[in-house]
Amino acid sequence: xxxxxxxxxxxxxxxxxxxxxxxxxxxxxxxxxxxxxxxxxxxxxxxxxxxxxxxxxxxxxxxxxxxxxxxxxxxxxxxxxxxxxxxxxxxxxxxxxxxxxxxxxxxxxxxxxxxxxxxxxxxxxxxxxxxxxxxxxxxxxxxxxxxxxxxxxxxxxxxxxxxxxxxxxxxxxxxxxxxxxxxxxxxxxxxxxxxxxxxxxxxxxxxxxxxxxxxxxxxxxxxxxxxxxxxxxxxxxxxxxxxxxxxxxxxxxxxxxxxxxxxxxxxxxxxxxxxxxxxxxxxxxxxxxxxxxxxxxxxxxxxxxxxxxxxxxxxxxxxxxxxxxxxxxxxxxxxxxxxxxxxxxxxxxxxxxxxxxxxxxxxxxxxxxxxxxxxxxxxxx
Amino acid sequence: xxxxxxxxxxxxxxxxxxxxxxxxxxxxxxxxxxxxxxxxxxxxxxxxxxxxxxxxxxxxxxxxxxxxxxxxxxxxxxxxxxxxxxxxxxxxxxxxxxxxxxxxxxxxxxxxxxxxxxxxxxxxxxxxxxxxxxxxxxxxxxxxxxxxxxxxxxxxxxxxxxxxxxxxxxxxxxxxxxxxxxxxxxxxxxxxxxxxxxxxxxxxxxxxxxxxxxxxxxxxxxxxxxxxxxxxxxxxxxxxxxxxxxxxxxxxxxxxxxxxxxxxxxx
Lengths: 381, 267
Fold this sequence. Notes:
The complex is a heterodimer of chains A (381) and B (267).
Chain A: H1 2-6, H2 8-33, H3 37-58, H4 63-87, H5 92-117, H6 127-130, H7 138-157, H8 159-167, H9 169-174, H10 179-201, H11 206-220, H12 224-248, H13 254-272, H14 278-291, H15 294-307, E1 315-316, H16 317-324, H17 329-337, E2 341-344, E3 353-356, H18 358-380
Helix pairs in contact in A: 2-7, 2-10, 2-11, 2-12, 3-4, 3-5, 3-10, 3-11, 4-5, 4-10, 7-10, 10-11, 11-12, 11-13, 12-13, 15-17, 15-18
Chain B: H1 2-9, E1 18-27, E2 30-40, E3 45-49, H2 56-63, E4 71-76, H3 81-84, E5 88-91, H4 105-111, H5 114-117, H6 125-137, H7 153-165, E6 171-175, H8 183-198, E7 202-206, H9 213-216, E8 219-224, E9 226-232, H10 233-236, H11 239-246, H12 250-256
Parallel strand pairs in B: 3-7, 3-8, 5-6, 6-7
Antiparallel strand pairs in B: 1-2, 1-4, 8-9
Helix pairs in contact in B: 4-6, 4-7, 6-7
C-alpha cells in the first residue's frame, strides 16, 4: 500500500482528482441550490471547442493554453445563453440545451479536423472527451491548483452576496447588490471548476462531478457553510478513492470511476440521510403506522361525519389515507369486522367509501367524549 | 433633464412617506401599471387591493426598483429609493423563494442585516442578538434554530417579516403576507403591523381579502392597472369604488356581503 502511494503517477492522479472534487463540490453546491444543474453540463460541453482552439493557436499540447481556451468558450457560451433567453422567448433550459449541443458539435468538428491534419502533437486531444487521468503530470497540476485557488478565494470573498442570491435573489437586489454581475461571476467560477476537471474527467462526465457532491451534501447539512464544506469533502473523497480504485485493475478509467464514486455517495445520501433520506422517512411512516390504532382511524371517520352533520356520511377511503399519511385499508377492514363500519356502495368512478354503523357511531362518540375529558384534565393540570 | 437631476438631490415631497408620480411600468407591450399617482402619508397602515393582474405586486417592485420604470418617478420621504434603502423593509411573497434552502430561521433574519454589514464584515454575536429580538417581535424566538423547511407556512411568513423588521425600517412593504396562512397567524401578523404603525412607521400591504380590509387598514388604495381611488378608509371604501376596481366580479362580493354602502362623501 505504501509503495502504491509512493507511485509518482498515482500521486498525481489522486492529487488532481482531489482538487477537482473540492472545487466542483464547492461551486456545485451553489449550482444545485440555484437549480442550475444543467449549467455545468453546458459549460463543459462548450469547453471542448476552446480546447481545440487553444491547440490550434499554440500548436502544442500545453495544458495552460488548452485550459485558457476551454475557459474562454465556456464563458462565451454562458453569456450567449443569458443573452438568448433575455432577448427571445426561449426559456433557460432550452437556451442551455441549445448552447450545449452547439458547443459540443463545434468541438467535435474541430477535433476531427485537427486529427485529420495529422502530426504527432495532436495525440491525446480526444482524451478530453472522457478524460485521461493517467497522463496527468506535475506540470498539469499547477494550472489546476491555481484555478482552484482563484475560484475558492472568489467564493470566500463573495460569500454573503452568494448566500443572499442563492436563497432570495429579489431580496438581494432590494439590498442593493449588483445581482446580475454576481450571477455572471458565479457562472464564471463554475466554468473554472469545469475547466479544472476537463483533463481527468472529461467534458461528458464533468457535469456529474458538479452536481453529485452538492446533492449529497444537501442531504446532511443544515447550513450553507456546512453544505459547501461537506460537498468539498465528498468531492475530495470521491477523487482520492476513485483514483485508488482505478489502480486496482488494468483498464479502469479514473475519471469515470471518480464520477461513479461521487454518484454513489449521492445515492447513499439520498437513501440514508437522517432527516431527508428515503429510508428514514419510510421508517418514520412505518412507526407512525404501528402507533396509529384502529381506534384513531374510527375517530377520523367519526369527525369527518360530524363535520358534515350526518353520521351516515360516506367517507372516502382516500381521504382517511391522506389524513393519516398511510394506507388505512387493513384498519378499516378490522373496524368493519368489529361491526363499527360498513363499506358502502359507491359510484363506479370513485374509490371505496366507508360509513359508521349505529354501533360504530355510539362507540366513536363514547371514545370522543372520554378523550375530551382527558384533555380537559390535562389543561387544568 | 437638468431639473430632473436637481430632483434627485433636493427633497421632493419630503412630508410624504411615499410619493409616486406618473408611474408607468410595462411588461413587453402590455402596461402593468398605467400613469400611477399615489401619495401615502407617514404613520398609516395602508392596504392595496385589486383583482388578479391589477399590478399590485408590480407596484411594490416598482417602488423598490426591482422592475424597470417606463415613465414617472417614486420618492420615499422625499428621496429616490437608492438613497433610502436602509429605511425600507420588504416582505416578498412567501412563494417567491425555495424554503428547502439549508438554513435556520435566525439565519434568514440575520441575512436582513447583510446590507448594513457591507461587503467585508461577517455577522457575529451582535447580529445574532438583533435577529433573535426580531424573531421575538413576531413570536418565533422558540423556533429560532429550526430549519426553515420544517416551519409551517405561517411560521415561514413570520420569519420573512422578522427579516424585514431587523432592519428597523421606517417604511415597510408587504406582498400578500396573509396569503395561505391560518387564522391565528393572520391575527398575529395584523397585530404586529398595528403595533409598528403605533410606533410611527408606515406600512403598505398588498392584500387580497376584501372581507377584512376595513378592519385591518386605515388607508386604502384601489388598484387596477390605474389607481381607481386612494385615501383614508372612511373616504374611499365604497360599493362604487369596489365596482370600479373589480368590474364584473362585484356581483360575487355583494352575495358575500363584503361590499359597503356608498360612503357619505361619495360624489
